Amino acid sequence: MFADSRFDYLHSVRFFLSYTATPVYWVADMPARTSELFDDVFVSHSDLLAENERLNNELLLAQRELQVLASLASENSRLRALSEAVRIVEGEVLAAEIVNRSPDRASKRVLINRGALQGVFVGQAMLAADGLMGQVVEVMPRSSWVLLVSDPLHVTPVEVNRNGERALARGVRGAADELELEFVTQTQDVRAGDLLVSSGMGQIFPKNFPVADVISVNNDPGQDFAVIKARPRAEINSTRHVMLLIPPRVHETPVPDVEAPASEVQP
Amino acid sequence: MKSRSYTYWVVIISLFLAYLLAIVPLPDWAMNWRPQWVLMFVFYWTMALPYRVGLGFAWAAGLLLDVLEGTMLGLNALTLLIVAYVTLSLHQRLRMYNPIQQSGLLFILALVALGLSHWLRVISGQIEPVDSMYLLAAFSSAAIWPALFSLLRSLRRGFIKN
C-alpha cells in the first residue's frame, strides 16, 4: 500500500490487474446503457420532429455565432502577431462517456470508458460541452479515472474573464459541487456573477475555457483573504458525454503502446 | 478434487456479484448507506468454509476491489485481511450465533474497516477528511446481514457439498 502510493513500479501491476476489472465495469454500466437504449428506441414521431426543429434552430444560431467568431479570430491572430505572442493551437478531442463514479463520497472522481488502448494518458484534460470537468489521474486498459474540478484535492488555475485577475480554484470539501478561490485578497476585483475561465497556467488545461461562475464573494475584514465561492459550468452530476483533449504535441508523436502510459505516470 | 474446484467457482461467482453491487452508481443520498458488500461476502465465506477460504483469498479479493474502486493497492486488501483473520479465529463460535448476533460482530468489523480505510487514505493524502457520515455503511451492512446470510446459506447448501 505504501509502495503503491509512493513508488512507481506497482503501476504496471495495477494496470494488468485492471484487465479483470473491465467486465465488472461493463456489467455495472448495463442499467444506464439499457435506459439510454430504451430512450432511443421508444421515442415518438412528434418528439423527434420537435427535437429536429430545436436542433435546426440551434444550428442556425451557432452558425451565426461562428461567423462572428471567425472575424474575431482573424482579428485576434493579427493582434497576437503584433504582440508576438504564442499562437494558441486548438487540439483535437476524443469523445468519451462517463460510466461510473467513485463509490465513496470523499473523492469526486468519475470513470470513463476510454483508456490506454485509446491513447488516454495521465494529466489529460476532460471537458464537457459547457465547461471544464477535470483531468485524468489513472489510466487502465479500457477505462480511466478522472479527478473532477470539484474535488478538494483538485486545484484549477483560473482567471476572471472580465479583467484577467488570476486565482486558484479548489473544490470544496463535502458533497457540494462548488469551487473556492484561494488566496484572493479583498482588494482584488472579483464580483458575484463573474465567469472564471482557465488561465492555461499549469499547462494541463487549455486557455480560456469556461470553468465556473462566481456565486458569492464575502469580504470579511477579520480574514486575510476574501471567501469566494463558484459553481462549475459543467453539469458535473448529470453529464454522460464528455471530451478528452488531445494536445497537438501528443498528436504528432505516434500513439504510445499499451504499457507506456502506465509506466510513465506521475500522479 | 472436482467438487473442490467447483466450490471455488461458487465462491468466485458470488464475489463477482458483490463487486457489482459495490460499484454500481447510486444517487447521492444513498452513497453513504451502501453496504460493505465485499466485506460481507468475505465474512460469510470465511465463516462457512474456513478451510478453503482463508486469508489469501481475502487478500486477493481486497486487491481486486482496490483496482475496481481506484484506491491505492492494498487498502481494501488490508481491511479484508483483518476481517478474515477475526472471522477465522472466531468461526466456531460465530456458527453457534443466530444471524442477529452475527450482525453485531459484523457491525464492529465494518466500522473498523471503514474507519481504517478512511484514516489510511487521509494520512496518505489520497482524500481530504470528510464528516463521519461514511460510517453509516456499517449500520446498513449490519441491518442487511440476516437476509444476506440466509441467502448465501441456501446458495451454499444448494451448490456445495461438504
UniProtKB/TrEMBL annotation, chain A:
<dbReference type="InterPro" id="IPR055342">
    <property type="entry name" value="MreC_beta-barrel_core"/>
</dbReference>
<dbReference type="GO" id="GO:0008360">
    <property type="term" value="P:regulation of cell shape"/>
</dbReference>
<feature type="coiled-coil region">
    <location>
        <begin position="45"/>
        <end position="72"/>
    </location>
</feature>
<comment type="similarity">
    <text>Belongs to the MreC family.</text>
</comment>
<dbReference type="GO" id="GO:0005886">
    <property type="term" value="C:plasma membrane"/>
</dbReference>
<keyword id="KW-0133">Cell shape</keyword>
<keyword id="KW-0175">Coiled coil</keyword>
<feature type="domain" description="Rod shape-determining protein MreC beta-barrel core">
    <location>
        <begin position="98"/>
        <end position="245"/>
    </location>
</feature>
<dbReference type="InterPro" id="IPR042177">
    <property type="entry name" value="Cell/Rod_1"/>
</dbReference>
<dbReference type="InterPro" id="IPR007221">
    <property type="entry name" value="MreC"/>
</dbReference>
<protein>
    <recommendedName>
        <fullName>Cell shape-determining protein MreC</fullName>
    </recommendedName>
</protein>
<dbReference type="Pfam" id="PF04085">
    <property type="entry name" value="MreC"/>
</dbReference>
<dbReference type="InterPro" id="IPR042175">
    <property type="entry name" value="Cell/Rod_MreC_2"/>
</dbReference>
<comment type="function">
    <text>Involved in formation and maintenance of cell shape.</text>
</comment>
TrEMBL record, chain B:
<dbReference type="GO" id="GO:0005886">
    <property type="term" value="C:plasma membrane"/>
</dbReference>
<comment type="similarity">
    <text>Belongs to the MreD family.</text>
</comment>
<feature type="transmembrane region" description="Helical">
    <location>
        <begin position="73"/>
        <end position="91"/>
    </location>
</feature>
<keyword id="KW-0997">Cell inner membrane</keyword>
<protein>
    <recommendedName>
        <fullName>Rod shape-determining protein MreD</fullName>
    </recommendedName>
</protein>
<dbReference type="InterPro" id="IPR007227">
    <property type="entry name" value="Cell_shape_determining_MreD"/>
</dbReference>
<feature type="transmembrane region" description="Helical">
    <location>
        <begin position="38"/>
        <end position="61"/>
    </location>
</feature>
<dbReference type="Pfam" id="PF04093">
    <property type="entry name" value="MreD"/>
</dbReference>
<dbReference type="InterPro" id="IPR026034">
    <property type="entry name" value="MreD_proteobac"/>
</dbReference>
<keyword id="KW-0812">Transmembrane</keyword>
<keyword id="KW-0472">Membrane</keyword>
<feature type="transmembrane region" description="Helical">
    <location>
        <begin position="6"/>
        <end position="26"/>
    </location>
</feature>
<keyword id="KW-1133">Transmembrane helix</keyword>
<keyword id="KW-0133">Cell shape</keyword>
<feature type="transmembrane region" description="Helical">
    <location>
        <begin position="132"/>
        <end position="152"/>
    </location>
</feature>
<feature type="transmembrane region" description="Helical">
    <location>
        <begin position="103"/>
        <end position="120"/>
    </location>
</feature>
<keyword id="KW-1003">Cell membrane</keyword>
<comment type="function">
    <text>Involved in formation of the rod shape of the cell. May also contribute to regulation of formation of penicillin-binding proteins.</text>
</comment>
<dbReference type="GO" id="GO:0008360">
    <property type="term" value="P:regulation of cell shape"/>
</dbReference>
